[in-house]
Structures are given as structure tokens and as C-alpha cells.
Specification:
alpha+beta, H-NOX domain, 2 domains, 4-stranded antiparallel sheet, 4 strands, binds protoporphyrin IX containing FE, Heme NO-binding domain-containing protein, Heme_NO-bd, NO_sig/Golgi_transp_ligand-bd, heme binding, H-NOX_domain_sf
């Protein structure tokens, strides 16, 4: 996983649960000695150990932890990738162009960084569908990112999202609607 995400995870745990929590969690995950660099790529196993230890330490539901982390990720995600985001875009536009622009750029900049493949269909001005597929299987992080983007634009109270597993394969579908 991209060091940027791992650094954000460290920051999220420290701000939400404190420095002592991060020390204990990183030690349990055998990651205490690792200095995290935003430009490196870290093994997924290490990141999942950190998440699992954080879930155990904070006694949070894994889905809830991932969703909250996804929300917390957004301000810096939008800052770091600002150059690829049209200032006129709002929530549904950012979501519409995530795959073709942001995730695409992330992959092109470093082929070792592998964001999930999102199949995005803008159904109308106010509705869209996103299919998420990843061997990491953490759609709740995506749910948090979507909510965080909507919160950034003040559109969260009008955003309706359902997350459903696809019946026939290891994929998930987000149905998204922005009410007027
Ligand atoms: C501003 C828009 C976005 C940017 C710049 C962005 C960028 C990134 C980056 C850098 C990663 C790390 C990939 C890696 O370490 O291999 C990532 C992962 C991820 N992204 Fe995005 N992303 C954006 C929007 C979204 C949206 C809208 C979703 C909603 C489904 C999403 C879902 C995810 C998930 C779930 C991961 C975790 C890795 C996985 O599941 O395989 N992202 N993204």
C-alpha cells in the first residue's frame, strides 16, 4: 500500500486515540521500527496488521474503523492530488472521474501502487453507480472516502449511498444519489 495511505493511517490513529495507542498498535503489528515514507510502497500484510491491531486496541468494528479512516483520509487526498482535480468539480464529478483521472494517475506515477479498479457509471446528473473490485476487499474504506468527499463539499446531508455485495463475483456496488 502507498506510503501516503500508511502515513495517514498513523496520523488517524494518533489523532483519534493518542500517541500511546499508536505505539502499542505499531508494536503489536511489528511495525514500530519502520519509518514511514510517503513515497514508498509497503506490504499490504503490514497495513492489514496495523488495521487489525488498531481494531482490537480500540474495540471498534472493522467496517466502522475503515469507514472512519476513509473519511479522515479525504482532506489530504484532495490536497495531494489537487493538480488532477478540476476546481469546478463537486462530489459526483470527483467520483465520476476518480478512475479515469485520479486512480489512473496514481497507477501511472508508480506501477507498484495499485488502487482498486472502479467501474463508474454516471446514470444522471444526480445518480451514479460504482463497482469496486480489489483483492484487498475493503469497500468500507471506499464508503468512507465517498462520504469524506461529500463532506468536503457540504453535500453529505444530501447524499444517499447503499453498498451491496455483487451476487456473482467478489465485487461490491455503490449506488449513489444526491438529492436536491
Ligand atoms: C480524489 C480522489 C481519489 C484519489 C486521489 C485516490 C487515491 C488513492 C490512492 C493513492 C490509493 C492507494 C493505492 C495503493 O496503495 O495501492 C487509493 C486506494 C483506494 N481507493 Fe482511492 N482515491 C480517490 C478516490 C476514491 C474513491 C471515490 C473511492 C471509492 C470507492 C476510492 C477507493 C479506494 C480504496 C477502497 C482504496 C484502498 C485500496 C484497495 O481497496 O485496493 N478511492 N486511492
Amino acid at each position: 500500500m502507498h506510503g501516503f495511505i500508511v502515513l495517514e493511517l498513523e496520523k488517524f490513529i494518533m489523532t483519534q486515540y493518542g500517541f500511546t495507542a499508536w505505539n502499542a498498535i505499531s508494536k503489536q503489528a511489528n511495525a514500530a521500527e519502520i519509518s514511514i515514507d510517503a513515497n514508498q510502497v509497503y506490504p499490504d500484510a503490514m497495513v492489514f496488521s496495523l488495521v487489525n491491531e488498531a481494531v482490537a486496541y480500540t474495540q471498534t468494528e472493522p467496517d466502522t474503523f475503515l469507514e472512519k479512516f476513509g473519511i479522515a483520509l479525504v482532506p489530504n487526498l484532495l490536497k495531494v492530488y489537487k493538480a488532477y482535480i478540476d476546481p469546478a468539480w463537486k462530489t459526483l464529478d470527483i467520483l465520476e472521474y476518480t478512475e479515469s483521472t485520479m486512480h489512473h494517475t496514481v497507477r501511472t506515477n508508480n506501477p507498484n501502487v495499485t488502487p482498486p479498479v472502479l467501474e463508474i457509471t454516471r446514470r444522471s446528473a444526480k445518480t451514479m453507480e460504482i463497482i469496486y473490485r480489489s483483492k484487498r476487499n475493503i469497500p468500507q474504506l471506499g464508503l468512507g472516502i465517498i462520504k469524506g468527499i461529500a463532506a468536503h463539499f457540504g453535500e453529505l446531508p444530501r447524499l444517499y449511498i447503499t453498498l451491496t455485495p455483487c451476487a456473482d463475483e467478489e465485487a461490491y456496488r455503490f449506488d449513489i444519489e444526491l438529492s436536491t
